[in-house]
């Protein structure tokens, strides 16, 4: 049943740019927008900034290098170095798969917001979007003050789920082209009271090690929720290890019922993995304590927008450069559980992925500015895991170093757009690139 409601709401017009979603992409977007001189508001549904990198307990940065040099630079590089200060045990000068101390990183992000003059609203969720033709006129936020409308010139959607674009009625894709199948989710967690000596000198837990105890846990009927041997583990601090482990299939983060069920399953998986590690890896985990599960479900994929350009597998395979590229990426095509073999057409689609060789040293591709512009709106940009790419390519561009650099580009563009009535296509993309290069970006 549907029913029309009308409400009188307070309208806040204090901001030029509003960024919705305070994960890696939203953080750099807000910092860069404010640095360009735009009055900027960052809206975050949880009580901390960082998204997956903090609240989601994803405790490891994907590579910052192309295996020759750092390629995620500018604000990303700054955040990476500040993040590392929270982990005294890190080896110097390592750029790839570096651990994250989430509590330290939350404060890094808070301090940057204060330093760059960004206004932040925590525990505040995007509730609705008001449009007129191809313009987003205002958005409605929900928090302890109830519902409040906000009007800005430009909006940046960094919700990871393209909520703003979807609520505005813009075009998006979700999952694969056959049945909307989505990558599995993972509910990350932290174990404390780990024997650090045992962990550092015992078997590598990753599934790439065929002798990993993860395989024994998977095969043990007592741990019925553990479907595969996916375990990535990082030492975070004294006797404390962060886990990106276990998979939950069929979670759609845009459906509250699906997401809520996943938390309940995720918490049980974390407990089973702790018990499995106690049993099959006692030298490190015999006394391990489940200290925390993530407040934010680990979602790899949901909506991705249809933008002015859709980055293709062929672009990725050719390591393509673009005149309007605003960042570069070299991460591999990392899709968890595509259903590749059931349907011949689907199989052919995923065969294209297998034709793409892993990038060699020094190789990367560009991401065009057009992938950040939803085709239906004049004054909206998107950054992070829901930009305009083919599904297979989303498996690469979804990770955090890439989110950081594309967020910075969106922020610069929105900051410049305030001189063009907020219209993002009217900003000279070469000016965006010039500003990014001045701020240290790696662009070709
Ligand atoms: C299990 C898992 C493991 C991963 N492992 C790694 C890894 O090892 N290394 C790596 O670099 N990357 C990894 N990734 C990828 C990476 O963490 C995410 O894809 C990345 O964080 C995406 O950044 P984002 O800013 O687009 O979104 P997110 O980090 O998801 O941030 C989105 C933010 O928006 C907020 N938000 C959402 N909707 C709303 C709304 N309606 N209103 C207000 N706020 C909202 C959320 O609370 C969140 O803070 C992993 C991802 C998952 C799920």
Detailed description of the structure:
It is a single chain. The protein has 444 residues and is α/β, with parallel strands linked by helices. It contains 13 helices and 17 strands. A hairpin with a 2-residue loop joins β11 and β12. α1 packs parallel to α3. The structure holds flavin-adenine dinucleotide. Flavin-adenine dinucleotide (FAD) binds next to α1, β5 and α12.
Quick overview:
This is FAD-dependent oxidoreductase. By secondary structure, the protein is an alpha/beta fold.
Number of domains: 2
Shape: globular
- Helical percent range? 25-40%
Number of strands: 17
Strand order of the largest sheet: 4-3-2-8-17
Mean pLDDT: 96
Q: Radius of gyration over alpha carbons? A: 21 Å
Return the structural class: alpha/beta
Q: Helical segment tally?
A: 13
Q: According to CATH, what is the class of the largest domain?
A: Alpha Beta
Strand content: 15-25%
Keywords: 4Fe-4S, Iron, Iron-sulfur, Metal-binding, Oxidoreductase
Protein name: FAD-dependent oxidoreductase
Descriptive keywords:
single chain, FAD-dependent oxidoreductase, FAD/NAD-bd_sf, 4Fe-4S, binds flavin-adenine dinucleotide, oxidoreductase, 5-stranded parallel β-sheet, alpha/beta, 444 residues, FAD/NAD(P)-binding domain, 4-stranded mixed β-sheet, iron-sulfur, 2 domains
List the helices and strands and how they pair.
Elements lengths: L10 E2 L4 E4 L3 H12 L4 E4 L31 H10 L17 H15 L2 E3 L3 E8 L2 E9 L2 E5 L3 E4 L5 H5 L4 E3 L14 E4 L3 H6 L11 H7 L11 E7 L2 E6 L10 H25 L1 H4 L3 E5 L9 E3 L7 H5 L7 E5 L14 H12 L9 E4 L11 E3 L8 H7 L2 H18 L11 H10 L6
Parallel strand pairs: 1-7, 2-3, 2-8, 3-4, 8-17
Antiparallel strand pairs: 5-6, 6-7, 9-14, 10-12, 10-13, 11-12, 15-16
Bound molecules: flavin-adenine dinucleotide (FAD).
Flavin-adenine dinucleotide binds next to α1, β5 and α12.
């Amino acid at each position: 049943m549907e029913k029309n409601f009308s409400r009188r709401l307070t309208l806040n017009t204090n901001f030029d740019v509003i960024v919705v979603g305070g994960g890696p992409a939203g953080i750099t977007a807000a910092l860069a927008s404010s640095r360009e001189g735009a009055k900027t508001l960052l809206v975050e549904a949880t009580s901390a900034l960082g998204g997956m990198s903090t609240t989601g307990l994803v405790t490891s940065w994907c590579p910052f290098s192309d295996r020759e040099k750092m390629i995620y630079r500018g604000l990303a590089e700054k955040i990476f170095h500040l993040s590392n200060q929270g982990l005294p045990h890190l080896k110097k000068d390592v750029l790839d798969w570096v651990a994250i101390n989430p509590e330290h990183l939350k404060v890094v992000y808070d301090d940057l917001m204060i330093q760059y003059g960004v206004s932040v609203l925590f525990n505040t969720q995007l509730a609705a979007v008001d449009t007129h033709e191809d313009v987003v006129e205002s958005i409605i936020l929900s928090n302890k003050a109830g519902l409040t409308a906000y009007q800005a010139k430009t909006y940046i959607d960094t919700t990871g789920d393209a909520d703003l674009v979807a609520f505005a009625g813009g075009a998006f894709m979700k999952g694969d082209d056959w049945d909307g199948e989505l990558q599995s989710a993972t509910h990350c967690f932290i174990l404390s009271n780990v024997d650090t000596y045992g962990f550092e000198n015992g078997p590598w837990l990753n599934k790439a090690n065929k002798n990993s105890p993860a395989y024994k846990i998977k095969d043990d009927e007592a741990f019925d929720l553990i479907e595969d041997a996916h375990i990535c583990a990082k030492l975070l601090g004294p006797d404390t290890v962060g886990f990106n482990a276990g998979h939950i299939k069929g979670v759609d983060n845009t459906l509250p019922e699906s997401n809520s069920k996943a938390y309940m399953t995720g918490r049980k998986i974390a407990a089973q993995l702790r018990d499995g590690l106690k049993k099959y890896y006692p030298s490190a985990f015999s006394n391990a304590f489940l200290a925390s599960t993530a407040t934010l479900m680990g979602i790899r994929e949901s909506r991705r927008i249809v933008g002015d350009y859709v980055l293709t597998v062929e672009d990725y395979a050719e390591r393509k450069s673009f005149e309007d590229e605003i960042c570069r990426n070299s991460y591999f095509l990392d899709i968890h559980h595509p259903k590749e073999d059931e349907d011949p057409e689907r199989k052919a689609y995923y065969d294209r992925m297998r034709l793409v060789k892993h990038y060699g040293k020094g190789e990367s591709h560009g991401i065009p500015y057009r992938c950040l512009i939803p085709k239906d709106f004049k004054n909206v940009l998107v950054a992070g895991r829901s930009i305009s790419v083919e599904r297979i390519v989303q498996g690469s561009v979804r990770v955090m170093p890439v989110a950081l650099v594309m967020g910075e580009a969106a922020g610069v563009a929105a900051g410049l757009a305030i001189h063009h009535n907020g219209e993002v296509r009217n900003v000279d993309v070469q000016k965006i690139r010039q500003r990014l290069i001045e701020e240290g970006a790696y662009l070709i």
